């Protein structure tokens, strides 16, 4: 087992560090620079069929569901098709309406999550078309889908998922490209996104280099009984995933909110004892995000920002973890990585069993 760890103290640490190569594997042979398009033959969909979908519905559980939300936003932005993500565990219990012109996407690392597998079965029974975004080759969900895109993340052992989630997000960017390029997305925009996808492995390395700084901040985060994780639009599923990872392995209460919703209630909880991790990318919402950070600081709440170099925090006394900029549509991919390291180092500080957190299984195969 030690050999498999390759010198790392935990599988989670190893899997976080593997992300640059894991993303390389995900994109290898799938990007066509000349035509600005992703070639996803495994989807088994012709350009005409891809053009025929008027909606996308993404289904997954836990972190896979949150990455599904990241994917839905990418698809809406790049392909301009209505897209949303839903917890597969809820979907299958509400007699969902299955539409022939909807592309359903099931997303799962293990391919064995029972709630997601049953959602696929329900869609197929009612005549829907399901694509899989799955890591484990030949798994139940992969076999049940009409086609799909394998994640090629390699084996993921730690219960807290990291590299598989990153590859899911990259997979959604490629699916968004495939759907976009048979619609309105221009060749130039396709090429812009492809160049950005190709740069991701190097940029992920740069984020991983900030680990010592993140480890310092994790000590303070571990000392709090409760934390907020906030973000909006592209940043909101990043905050949800950050809170999820933190809860899973540090056993601290961590709650994600849309930054815009703070003032509608949760701001009442802010004081010196409740720190906030704020996702503040240099996008069209940066000023609004900064205003929310200012409101938290004014009430004595500590803030750690996950942000870009060119966001101007002015006089705000806020420590920052800076990630490289990519194309705005892909920002969530890089913004999520520091939150993996934050959770990891908080759990390390607290001395918990990082790879096998209490009460959790790597894949939930029973109801
Ligand atoms: C992630 O850190 C979690 N352990 C969990 O939410 C997981 O993503 C979820 O159970 C779905 O698993 P799957 O991707 O194997 O379907």
TrEMBL record:
Biological processes, Gene Ontology terms: carbohydrate metabolic process; fructose 6-phosphate metabolic process; protein N-linked glycosylation; UDP-N-acetylglucosamine metabolic process
GO molecular function, one term: carbohydrate derivative binding
Domain of life according to the entry: Bacteria
EC number: 2.6.1.16
Keywords linked to the UniProt accession: Aminotransferase, Cytoplasm, Glutamine amidotransferase, Repeat, Transferase
Domain called SIS: residue spans: 45-185, 214-357
Places the protein is found: Cytoplasm
Quaternary structure (record): Homodimer.
Role description: Catalyzes the first step in hexosamine metabolism, converting fructose-6P into glucosamine-6P using glutamine as a nitrogen source.
The name this protein goes by in its record: Glutamine--fructose-6-phosphate aminotransferase [isomerizing]
Organism of this sequence: Amycolatopsis australiensis
Gene encoding the protein: glmS
Portion of the parent chain present: 241 to 607 of 607
């Amino acid at each position: 087992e030690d050999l498999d760890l390759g010198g790392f103290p935990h599988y989670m640490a190893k899997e976080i560090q593997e992300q640059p190569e894991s993303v390389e594997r995900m994109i290898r042979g799938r990007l066509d620079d000349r035509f600005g398009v992703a070639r996803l033959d495994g989807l088994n969909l012709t350009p005409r069929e891809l053009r025929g979908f008027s909606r996308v519905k993404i289904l997954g559980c836990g972190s896979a569901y949150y990455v599904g939300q990241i994917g839905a936003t990418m698809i809406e932005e790049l392909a301009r098709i209505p897209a949303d993500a839903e917890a597969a565990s809820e979907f299958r219990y509400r007699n969902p309406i299955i539409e022939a012109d909807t592309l359903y996407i099931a997303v799962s690392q293990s391919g064995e999550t029972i709630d997601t597998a049953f959602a696929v079965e329900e869609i197929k029974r009612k005549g829907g078309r399901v694509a899989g975004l799955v890591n484990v080759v030949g798994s139940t969900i992969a076999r049940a889908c009409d086609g799909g895109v394998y994640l090629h993340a390699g084996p993921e052992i730690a219960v807290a998922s990291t590299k598989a989630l990153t590859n899911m997000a990259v997979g959604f960017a490629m699916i968004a490209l495939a759907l976009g390029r048979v619609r309105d997305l221009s060749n130039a925009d396709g090429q812009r996104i492809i160049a950005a996808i190709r740069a991701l492995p190097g940029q992920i390395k740069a984020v991983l280099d900030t680990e010592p700084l993140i480890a310092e901040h994790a000590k303070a985060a571990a000392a709090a009984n409760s934390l907020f994780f906030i973000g909006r639009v592209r940043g909101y599923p990043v905050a949800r995933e950050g809170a999820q990872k933190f809860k899973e392995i540090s056993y601290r209460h961590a709650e994600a909110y849309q930054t815009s919703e703070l003032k509608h209630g949760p701001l009442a909880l802010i004081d010196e004892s409740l720190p906030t991790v704020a996702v503040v990318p240099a996008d069209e919402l940066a000023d609004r995000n900064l205003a929310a950070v200012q409101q938290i600081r004014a009430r004595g709440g500590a803030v750690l920002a996950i942000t870009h170099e060119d966001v101007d925090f002015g006089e705000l006394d806020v420590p920052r973890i800076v990630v490289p900029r990519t194309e705005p549509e892909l920002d969530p991919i890089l913004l999520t990585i520091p939150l993996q390291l934050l959770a990891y180092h908080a759990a390390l500080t607290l001395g918990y069993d990082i790879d096998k957190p209490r009460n959790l299984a790597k894949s939930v195969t029973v109801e």
